[in-house]
Every structure is written in structure tokens, then in C-alpha cells.
Amino acid sequence: MTRAEPYGHTAMNDDTHKSAPVVLSEQSMRALRAIRHDWVVPEMYPGSRVLMARSALDAVFATDNQIDTAPNWIEVCQDPDQPGSLPDRLRAVDGSDRLTVQLALSVHPQAVLIEGKQLIEKVKLSFIPALSVVSLLIQAFRTDCIRAVRPLIRSLEKKGFELPPPDQMQAIHQALEHLGDG
């Protein structure tokens, strides 16, 4: 187990941005594992450390009998130990999402992969780029990392994962159709 050290607060140029870490949440990892696309994270963020809180990863291990050790592209971090260290708007966040947000706030990541529209919006208000698995898959499709998004979204839905609200999903499907994901 390794510990994530906070980055100093400096202006980020393109090289620094690419080397800033990515923080992965339990639910995002579960969703990506469910559709067998967890490999997309290191592909979309080459050269970046992918960090995950120990308890969040342990929770994935507890329910996914296909995995019992962290993939070599994940850097497992000690759980943050400052229970009151979140901004007011994020204090109600609990469980592994709380650990993910605390970790993200401590390392100034280029992105945090986390699920839930309201949570994503609150994290973005803390000046942390946040996105869901669906957003990551769309980016992966746009950069030719994956061939299609719609079957993956259908699979996530069938497996009971939270998707964006219906109006947003309609816009996503229209955009994917325009991009050639038929």
C-alpha cells in the first residue's frame, strides 16, 4: 500500500496537467469492471497516476470475485483521515465517495471519476474536474479508444448502475448518433 502525497499548489501547464493524477471512485470502478472496460482509465490518462482509496478498492474486492488485487495501473492510497476536511457543500457525502472526494481534494487531480449527477456537480464546485463513467466512455469513443458506447450504456443500465437523468441520456444518444455510434 502506498500513500498519495499532495501536489504543491502551482499553475499547471500542459505537461503538469498530463502528469496530475486521476482519482477513481468505488462506484466508477464497479461500473467499469461490470462492463469489462476498466482498462479504459489508463488508456485515457496515459502517464498519469490513477489513485484509489484503500477502503474503496477493498469494497470492490468484497463484491467482485473476479478481482482480489489492485490492477497494476492503480496506486492504492491510505484512506484520508481528516473527517471534517470537506467544504460545507460536500459534508453530507459519506462512505467511499467521501474518501474519494477527500483524496481528490488532497492531490489536485486532473479528474475524479465518480458517479451521481448531484455529487459530480458539487465536486466541480470545488474546482475539481469530475466525470462519470458514461462521460469517460464518450470521451474514449471520441478518441477512438473504444468502438461503441451505446451497448456499454445498455449494459450498465441492465446491471443496475446509475445513469444520467433521462433528458441528459436523450441528448447523449443524439450526440452519439451524430458521432457515428449507431
Please give a handful of descriptors for the protein shown:
182 residues, 5-stranded parallel beta sheet, alpha/beta, Rossmann fold, disordered N terminus, single chain
Describe this protein's structure.
The longest helix has 14 residues, at 166-179. The chain is α/β, with parallel strands linked by helices and 182 residues long. Helix 4 (54-63) links the parallel strand 2 and strand 3. It contains nine helices and five strands; from the N terminus they run αβααβαβαβαβααα.
Q: What's the CATH architecture name?
A: 3-Layer(aba) Sandwich
- Tell the overall outline: globular
Query: Do you know the CATH topology?
Result: Rossmann fold
> CATH H level: which superfamily?
5'-nuclease
Low-confidence stretches: 1-17
The radius of gyration is 16 Å
Q: What pattern of helices and strands is seen along the backbone?
A: HEHHEHEHEHEHHH
Mean pLDDT: 84
List the helices and strands and how they pair.
Layout: H1 14-19, E1 22-24, H2 26-34, H3 40-44, E2 50-53, H4 54-63, E3 74-77, H5 95-107, E4 111-113, H6 117-124, E5 130-131, H7 133-142, H8 150-158, H9 166-179
